[in-house]
Amino acid sequence: METELSHQKQIASLIGPDLQRLLREVGDPELARELLEDFHPEDIADLLRELDSTDAAEILKALPDDVAGPIFERLEQPTQSVIVSILGPEEAAEIASEMAPDDRADLIEALPDEVGEQLLDALERVDPEAARETETLGRFEEGTAGALMTPDFLSVTPRKTVSEAIQMVRQKGGQAETVYYVFVTNDSRRLEGVVSLRDLLLAEAQASIAEVMTTRVISVQPETDQEEVARQMSKYDLLAMPVVDRYQTLVGVITADDIMDVLTEEGTEDAQKLGGMEALENSYFATSFGTFLRKRATWLVVLFIGEFFTGTALRGYDEVLGAIGSLAFYLPLLISAGGNSGSQSSTLIIRGMAVGDVKLSDWWRIAVRELGIGLAMGLILAAVSVGRVYMWGDKGLLALVVAISVTGIVVMGCVVGAMLPLLLRRLGLDPATSSAPFIASLVDVLGIVIYMQLAKMLLASAIQKGIELKAATGH
Amino acid sequence: METELSHQKQIASLIGPDLQRLLREVGDPELARELLEDFHPEDIADLLRELDSTDAAEILKALPDDVAGPIFERLEQPTQSVIVSILGPEEAAEIASEMAPDDRADLIEALPDEVGEQLLDALERVDPEAARETETLGRFEEGTAGALMTPDFLSVTPRKTVSEAIQMVRQKGGQAETVYYVFVTNDSRRLEGVVSLRDLLLAEAQASIAEVMTTRVISVQPETDQEEVARQMSKYDLLAMPVVDRYQTLVGVITADDIMDVLTEEGTEDAQKLGGMEALENSYFATSFGTFLRKRATWLVVLFIGEFFTGTALRGYDEVLGAIGSLAFYLPLLISAGGNSGSQSSTLIIRGMAVGDVKLSDWWRIAVRELGIGLAMGLILAAVSVGRVYMWGDKGLLALVVAISVTGIVVMGCVVGAMLPLLLRRLGLDPATSSAPFIASLVDVLGIVIYMQLAKMLLASAIQKGIELKAATGH
C-alpha cells in the first residue's frame, strides 16, 4: 500500500534525480553544503542508496567532509566497504574523521584487515584523536556495550557550580553526542553521579553540582550485552546510559537513538532465529546470495537431519502402518499439531526471556502452566478431530486413537517447547538459535511414537488381522 | 544464569522486605517520600510486583500522590485494575492525577466501562485538566500515535528570542515530559518548526527563534500506527516526535522512552504471531489462563483445520501409499523440509516489511531471489536425502523420487513462504497474523501432492505390482 511509504521517502523520490544531478555538477563544496542544509542526512543516504556505488562515492567526495560523514555512516556496511575501496584510504579517512565514533569503529571492523589498517593509518594523519578512539572502541566485540558507546560525552567535577556546568555545555555541546545528561566524575574520571540538562536549567545557578546530582546512577560495563543495555534503558526510561570499567571509570556513553536501532535489530534477529535460520547482519536485499544461502541452508540441513529420526520411528511401527493404511492419513495432521503447540510455547518463553519477563527460576511455574494449557488445548483439538475422523468414514477405535494421540501430542508439544529453551539457556546456549531444530525433531518423533504406540495397543486385533493377511499372501 | 539478573534487581530483592515493612508502618507520607527519594520508580514498582495487590494498594495509598503516580503507572494493567478496585475511585483518582497522561488514558481504557467512568468523574473533581486530557487521548485507538503522545510539551512562537525560550524552559520544564525539544507554533498552534535545547544553548541569547529553528520538521498524525512512528524516530534518530492533526495543529509529542517500549512490544508481537498465536497484551505471567487459552487455542484450531487437507491429499493417493509402504516413512521428513523453508522465507519477508527493508513493489525481485535460493537449498537437501535413502536400504527409483521431491518442495516452500505475506499485505491484512496457517497448510498439502505425484509417475510398475497383489488376496 502506497500509504506506507513515508512522507520523506516520497519527497526523496520526487527531488532525487534533480538533486543527484545538482550534486554531481556542483564544483563548490560550500555551495553543496547550503543546498543540503535543510535535508536530514538519512534522506540523503536514501538517495545515495538508489545510485550505484561509483556515483555515490563521487557525490560524497564532492561534499564537505562534515556533511559527508553523517551521510556515509548511515549507509550499510557492504556499501560502505565498496565506497572506501573506490575513494582510497586518504579520501575515505577525511570522511571517516567526521563519522560518529561507534559507526567508524564498526566500519574499520567490517573492512578486510588490510584495507582497515590502511584506513586507520590515513586517519592517524588526518585526525590522530579519532584514530585513537577508533582503536579503543574496536577492541570491544560487536553486540556489546563497548561497541555501541561513544567517547564524546560531557562531564564535570562535583565541585563546579550549576552555571559553570551550563557554560561547559554551551562550549563543548557542539561535539558531544548527547548534551541532555552531564556526567559527574572525580579527578580520576570515576563516575560519581549524573545530572540532566533539565535539572541543571531548573536548579539555582550558584548551587554546586554535588548538591543537584543524582548519585544512584545506573551504569553498564563495556562487556555487557547490547540486549541487556536496551532492557535497562527502556526499563528506566533513560536517554543515555554511562559505561564504566571495573574501576568505575567512565569510558563512554550509549545514547537512546543507538538503542532504538538495537531493539529493532534484536527483534529481527529473534524472529529470524525462531524462523529456523541464522540471523542476518544486513537487510534482505543488502545480504549477498552466498551469505543468504549459508545462513539458511546450514539450519535447513540441520533441521532435515534432525527429522531423519521421524523415519526411524515410523520404521519401528512398520507392521502397524502396513496393516492399517488409513493411519498414515492422520500422520501430517497430528505431527503438525505437536509442532504448532511447541512453537507457540517456545516463542513465548524465548521472547519472554529476551525482554526479561521470564526467568530461569520460573521453570516450575512454567511447566505447570504449560501442562494445563496443553491439556485444555489438546482436549479441544481432540473434539475437533473426532468430527473429522467420522467425516472421513473412519470411526470407532480409530477415532479414539486419534483423539487420545492429539491430546497427548499437544501436551507434550507445550511442555517440550517451553522447557527446552530454558534448559538450553541453563546450559549457556542461546535458546533462540538452538531451540528450533531440537524442538521440531523431538516433538515430531515423540508425536509419532505416541500415535503409533496408541494405535498398536488399541487396534491390536485389526493389526493382527492385517499381518495375517500379508503372511497368507507371502508378502 | 544469575549474572542475568540486573544489578538493580539484586538490590531490590535485598532491601525489598525491609522497605516493604517500613513503607507499611510509616504513617507520614513525607517521611516515605524522603525514604524513596533515591530509588527509581521502576524499582519500587518491582517491589510492589512481589506483593499481593492489597498490600501494594496500601503502600501506594500511604505515599504522597506525586510519588505514587509514577510508580503506579509502571505496573501492568491487570494489577492496576485490581488496585483501582481496592482503592476506590476517590483514592485512585488522586494517584491517577499524577500519572503520565498517556498511561492514565490507557488505564481508563483498560478498566471495565463503569469503573472507568467513576474514576474519570472522580478525576474531574481532583484535577479537571487531567480529566480533559484523558478524554482527548482516550479517543485514539491503542497502537496509534494518538494513544502514545503526551499533551505536556513545550512550545514557543517564532517571534520570541532564544533567551526568552530558555527562560520558558526553566519555568515550565518541570511539568513537560520532554524539554529537549521546544516546538515552534504560530498563534493558532500550527507547527512551524522545532529547536532542540542543545541548539538553544549554543545560540546567541538575543537571536529570534525563527532564526535558529529547523523548519523541516518530521511529524506524524494521531492515526499513524505506532510501528510507523517507531520506524521514523529510529531512522531519523529523534528523541521526540511531534503529532499534528490534519490542520497541522500540534496536538502532542511522543518521546523516545515510549518508543523503546513500542519497539520491544512490536518485536514480541511479531514473534508471537510468527509462532502461530495471537499476540498477548501482557507478559507471560501477567496473562490470565483464560486469555492465554483463547489466544493460543483459536489459532491452534485454525491451523489444525487447515491441516485437514493433508489427509484429503493423502487419501487421493491411497493406492500409491498402500502399494509401497516405505513411501510413508519419508512423509514427515519431506513435509518438514517444506515447512522449514517456508517459515524462513515468510519470517524474512514479514520482518523485512515491519522494519521497512522490504516493500510490496519489490515482489518480483523477491520471487526471483527465493526461486534461486530455494533451488540451491533444495539441491543440497536432495544430496543429503539420497544418502539417507541408501542408508535405509531403499534405493534406485525411490531415491530419485525423494531427491526430486525435496528439491521441488523446498523451492515451493521458499516461493509460497515469501509471496503469501506480500499478497496478504496487498489485500490489506496483517501478514504476521494471517500468514502462519495459510503457509503451513498450503506448503504441507502441496508438498504431499508433489511427493505422491512423483512417486505415482516414477514408481508406476512397482505400484501396479502392489495393487495386483492386493487384488489377488481379495483385499
Molecular structure report:
With 475 residues, chain A is mainly alpha-helical. Chain A folds into 3 domains: 138 residues, MgtE N-terminal domain-like (MgtE N-terminal fold); 100 residues, Roll (CBS-domain), CATH 3.10.580; 184 residues, Tetracycline Repressor, domain 2 (Orthogonal Bundle). Chain A contains 22 helices and 5 strands. In chain A, the strands form 2 sheets. Chain A has a 3-stranded mixed sheet. Chain A has a two-stranded antiparallel sheet with strand order 4-5. The longest helix of chain A has 30 residues. Chain A is elongated, with a radius of gyration of 31 Å. The two termini of chain A are 61 Å apart. The N terminus of chain A is likely disordered. The interface between A and B is large, with 131 and 131 residues.
List keywords for this structure.
475 residues, disordered N terminus, 22 helices, three-stranded mixed β-sheet, two-stranded antiparallel sheet, MgtE N-terminal fold, mainly alpha, elongated, homodimer, Tetracycline Repressor, domain 2, CBS-domain, 5 strands
Write the layout of secondary structure elements.
2 copies of one chain form a homodimer.
Chain A lengths: L6 H19 L3 H8 L4 H10 L2 H10 L2 H8 L4 H20 L4 H10 L2 H14 L1 H11 L6 H4 L6 E2 L5 H11 L8 E5 L5 E6 H6 L6 H4 L13 H10 L4 E5 L5 E6 H19 L14 H28 L1 H6 L7 H25 L7 H29 L5 H30 L4 H28 L1 H13 L3
